[in-house]
Amino acid sequence: QVQLVESGGGLVQAGGSLRLSCTASGRGFGPNAMGWYRRAPGKQRVLVALITTGGATNYADSVKGRFTISRDGAKNTVYLQMNSLKPEDTAVYYCNAAGWPTADYWGQGTQVTVSS
Asked: How much is the mean pLDDT over the chain?
């Protein structure tokens, strides 16, 4: 049984910062990649950022230069540092663990609200 526990969401003013954390637990060697997705009201869930076990990262164009994803492999924990937040970043953010070893897993989601 794989579990993902997220924390760090909340309400922040535009221009502010938040840091999301997600810790994965379960059997095996852990996921091949971990990442963050988000679903804004009325929209589909989309990739925000991901990081592989090798440290390669990928970001959505809308967050490049503002968000940074990092990972503690020993703890199976992934972080998303979000700076210069904008109202359009408001969404439910979901942690994802991919390739564990072949299945993907999701966290329960954490709300991020950016006020203007």
From this structure: 94
With contact defined as beta carbons under 8 Å apart, do 9 and 18 qualify?
A: yes
Q: What is the pLDDT of residues 49-63, one digit of tens each?
A: 999 999 999 999 999
Rounded to an integer, what distance in angstroms lies between the CA atom of residue 22 and that of residue 53?
A: 15
CB within 8 A of 84, min separation 6: which ones?
A: 15, 17, 66
Closest of 56, 55, 94, 87 to residue 73, by C-alpha? 55
Q: How many CB atoms lie within 10 A of CB 53?
A: 14
Contact 23, 4 (CB under 8 A): yes
Average pLDDT (35-40) is 97
